Task: structure prediction
Amino acid sequence: MDAQNRGQAEEIDPADQWVLNPETGNYELRLDQSAGQSPAVTPPRNARRAAPSPRKAEPEAGSEPGPESGTEPGAGSGTRSGSRGSGKAAQSRTDVPGQRGSRRAGKSQPEAAAAVVGRRKRKPRKSGKKKALGWTGGVLAFLVVGGSIGGYLYYEHLNGNIATIDVAGAGSGGFKKGEPVNILLIGTDKRTGAGNEGYGDAGSVGHADTNLLFHVSKDRTNATVLSIPRDLITDIPDCETRTENGTETIPGTPQTRFNNSLGQDDRDPGCTMRTVQEITGLEVDHFMMADFNAVKTLSTAVGGVTVCVAKDVDDKKSRLKLSKGEHKISGEDALAFVRTRHAFGNESDLSRIETQQQFLSSMIREMKSGDTLTSPSKLFKLAEAATKALTVDTGIGSIDKLSDLATELAKVPAKNITFMTLPVLDNPAEAVKATVVLNDAEAKPLFAMMQNDVSLTEVKKKESAKEQAAKKEQAALLKGTRAAPADVRVDVFNGGGPQGSAQETLNWLQITEGVLKSSNKGNAPENVDRTTLEYAPNQADQARALAAMMGLPAAGMKPGTEDAVGLEAMTLTLGKDFKGAGVPITGPAKVSKNVQKVEADKQVCAK
Result:
């Protein structure tokens, strides 16, 4: 296993290095297929796996700066932990830490095994048939010895694969069970790794080109994955980074591309985390950074990812060539699929984001499938690929912590994972549209939904008799015709919501929902616990329309006894239960139909 990590046994599957000898009944550690039988190792009965203390990566020599991101940036690139500098004078830009290298020191795994269990007399070599049977049992042997010497060595092997970066002051320092989790997935455009030099700009310093904020709900019933376009014009805040000489504060940059939050001016992933927090208002707990090879190796480890294309594709730039219909792709084909800009949609980066979301949705389904979860060989390959492909923050920089995190994420059903793209508009300051700006009216409700842990999908929960009765009451009140948004008249009061809620709601109603006959009436005479809508009998169709927009429960509907006169408006009072404009008071969140959305449990054909 240690040999494989050093590149001395490239074709050896770690799962096949612990084998069960059918004649002796012993587990035997084989580190070289070409060598004879390795000494038999008998794991001690009831042995426990001791968790080793985390080890930091060895510092890496400084790297040369390269030009900014060029054409065809893709899903990510190689990274590793350690210092970015080598004692030289500061440069205006620095490479994202390069990949890869073990951080383990000390005895090799064969030496460690010998020191613990000693050596036994070599057994005679077996016949070809019996030897094949022994190797076939390798995966089973690993599972059997999972908590003993073999499991400990493999644990150490995987632990040594992980590269980490200490992001100064960024992140929460660790996720907590029973609390929401926000993880930033970063793919850089740095062309490291064998065979990746020819993709676009081989000299890129490594920018944040593919960015997904993975928000997992407190109860683990649902998750929202928010894609942030690389060409978003935003403010990058000041950020602290670790250097060889201590901590350095890198000045922020106003109104620049989001992808410059990484790599540019010595910025590390902590700067990208802070930028995301400034945009969304969500604290980012951790980051995971991947390279081109991550797409290749992970797609291969699961046995391929099923994708669908609505037409024949032959994109020379990304090298994607697929016929119309479904395909199971991996390796170079998978990388081409997530990199292509010219095969689908309007050939923009936003269209590529949608394609990447479809690919990731399919990969999630594959990872959660019985074919993967019941296949020890696939699980071992996944463990190898994931630990080698990802660079993470020190808060999750060990197998123990990553396993705990993976256990929490695995609780979310695929049907309740929704991919969204940050709502944006073409940059009005540009004649030739190359960048985008935030669409505040549509983005703020989405941020409020994530901040308040509101699901985008209908999550079935056990309901009390009282809750069931309230649902029936609401259904009765909402039953009937609904007025068109343009015919809804409403005055909005803030009676306990956050400051500015009335104006925020007014903007949302007018811009997103088309309720133009609405007014901000400021603060209500008194605060209320629950949001209410007061309306006259002849305004019932308007009330039903507004309640549906806001996810207002039956308890909030307050019908009057006398009809409204003339142009009299309904009264909406935002209470303490108000979470934000566009965030439903109850039920799943409703976002604008203009917001790009992909559901993880559905196969979609790229067009």
Summary: Residues 349-368 form the longest helix (20 residues). The radius of gyration is 28 Å. The longest strand covers residues 208-216. Confidence is low (pLDDT under 50) at residues 1-16, 31-94, 97-148.
